[in-house]
Every structure is written in C-alpha cells, then in structure tokens.
Amino acid sequence: MEADLLAAKKMLDNGYNVVICYKGMMFTSDKEKDVALKEFISSKLDLSMFSIALKSLETNDINYLLELGINKVITYKLSSDAKELLDSNNFTYNYFELI
C-alpha cells in the first residue's frame, strides 16, 4: 500500500469519514460521505493525482470518484458490486472487508 493511502487511512482511524491525500497534502471531512464527496466535486480542485480513503465504498460512490478523477482508494468496507466497478474502471484499491 502506498504512502498516501496509508496516511489517509490513519486519518480515517482518527475519526474522519473522507480523506483525500497526495504527497503530504491532505483534505479531510467528517461530514457524511455523500455530502463530503459532492463538496469536493464542487470545489473544482484537480484531485486526479490524489488517493482517497473512505470508511465504506458502495456502487453509487464510484461515480463521485470518477468525477473527481481519483483512481486510488482504500476503504474499510467494500460492496461486491463496487468491487466489480473498481476492477472494470482500473482503480487501484485496498479494502479490509467485502460486504
């Protein structure tokens, strides 16, 4: 697992719901996942080089990640349908529990 994903996971462990990280630059949110992802999208920041850590990842979240241009993900819980979408869209990902 690369350093950005490990740093982002550490921030999840500290209570954040969404963490976006690249080479030490980090954006965090303790808001609900959908709200946080929509806010990151509306910020118009170029996050395509960033990695993201989420407590859970479901199929509807993949569209947000595609819109953000993020393709490196770590999550505690990953739905099996989301896993298929990650695979078909060439994401790099790690997870701890498949649900």
What does this structure look like?
This protein is α/β, with parallel strands linked by helices and 99 residues long. It has a single domain (3-98), classed as 3-Layer(aba) Sandwich (Cytidine Deaminase, domain 2), CATH 3.40.140.30. Helices cover 40% and strands 31% of the residues. It has four helices and five strands; from the N terminus they run αββαβαβαβ. The chain has helices at residues 3-13, 33-42, 59-68, 80-88, and strands at 18-22, 25-29, 51-57, 72-78, 92-98. The chain has a five-stranded mixed sheet with strand order 2-1-3-4-5. Helix 3 runs parallel beside helix 4. The model has no long low-confidence stretch (mean pLDDT 90).
Please render the helix and strand layout as text.
Blueprint: H1 3-13, E1 18-22, E2 25-29, H2 33-42, E3 51-57, H3 59-68, E4 72-78, H4 80-88, E5 92-98
Parallel strand pairs: 3-4, 4-5
Antiparallel strand pairs: 1-2, 1-3
Task: Estimate nothing, just give the exact number of structural domains.
Answer: 1
Helical stretch count? 4
- The level-1 CATH class: Alpha Beta
Strand order, main sheet: write it out.
Answer: 2-1-3-4-5
